[in-house]
Amino acid sequence: MNDDIKNFVHLFIDLPDHLISIFEGIVTFIELEPNEIFTKKDEYPNDFFIIKTGIMRSYLLNEKGTETTRAFFISGDISGSSSAMMQKIPSDVNYQALTKVTGYKGDFNKLIELTLKHKEFSLFYIKTLERAYLKAENLLLNISTLTSTERYLALKEKIPNVDNLITQRHIASYLNISPVQLSRIKKKLNNL
User: Fold this and answer.
1) 146: how many CB neighbours lie within 10 A of its CB?
2) Would the pLDDT of 45 be above 80?
3) Torsion region of 35: left, alpha or beta (phi above 0 gives left; psi -120 to 50 gives alpha)
4) Residues 6+ apart with CB under 8 A from 104
5) Which residue, of 37, 176, 185, 188, has the greatest Cβ tally within 10 A?
C-alpha cells in the first residue's frame, strides 16, 4: 500500500486498507515540470491532481493575453478543474505547475463510480468538496477584506519561502497588483 495515498485519504476520512487499495487503482504517480500545463482552458478535463510536492496555480487568461492567478495549490491539496469535470463542460481555467510538481493524477469518472459502489467514497468525496468550498470561501473573504499587503503576508504564511519558489509576476497576479506594487510592499515590509 502506498503511504502517500493512505496519508492523503486520511486527511479527509479513515478508510480501511482494502478501500484505500481500490482508490490507488484510479490514481497514477506523475511529475510535472515547471510551467507544464495540467489542464488547459477549453479542454474537457477528466483528471484531478493530488499534490505531493511543489506548487501549482489556477489562472485565467483574458482576450488581451493577460494572466490572472486565481489560486495556488501546495502539498496535500487537490488541483484540477472540478466544476468542469462535475458539469462535463470545457474548463474555463488553466492549471499549471509553477515548480517541479510530484503527485497523483486521478480519474474523476472512476472516483464518481466508486462513490456509487461504496458509501465511504461518497463521504470522502463530500469531504474533499467541503475542503474546496472552504478554501474558495476563504479566498473570497480575503480578497474582499484584506489589503494587498495583508494578502501577501497571508500567502507567505501559507508558503513561507514563496518569494524564492515562484516568480514575482505570479505572486503579483495572485494579489491583483502589478509587480512594481509588489516590490513596494516588500520594500516597506523590509523597512519595518
Assistant:
1) 14
2) yes
3) left
4) 4, 5, 8, 27, 28, 29, 30, 49, 50, 52
5) 185
CB burial of residue 97 (10 Å; 0-12, 13-18, 19+): buried
Q: How many whole angstroms separate alpha carbon 56 and alpha carbon 51?
A: 8
Write out the three cell numbers for 105. 493524477
Instruction: Classify residue 130 by burial, with Cβ atoms within 10 Å: 0-12, 13-18, 19+.
Output: exposed
pLDDT digits (tens, 9 = 90+) for 100-154: 999 999 999 999 999 999 999 999 999 999 999 999 999 889 889 999 999 999 9
The DSSP-derived string for 92-158 is SSEEEESS-EEEEEEEHHHHHHHHHH-HHHHHHHHHHHHHHHHHHHHHHHHHHHS-HHHHHHHHHHH
The enclosing H or E element of 184 equals helix 179-190
Q: Rounded to an integer, what distance in angstroms lies between the CA atom of residue 154 and that of residue 142?
A: 9
The C-alpha cell at 159 is 508558503
Q: Which is nearest to 139 in space by CA: 189, 74, 72?
A: 72
Instruction: Classify 55 in phi/psi space as left (phi over 0), alpha (psi -120 to 50) or beta.
Output: beta
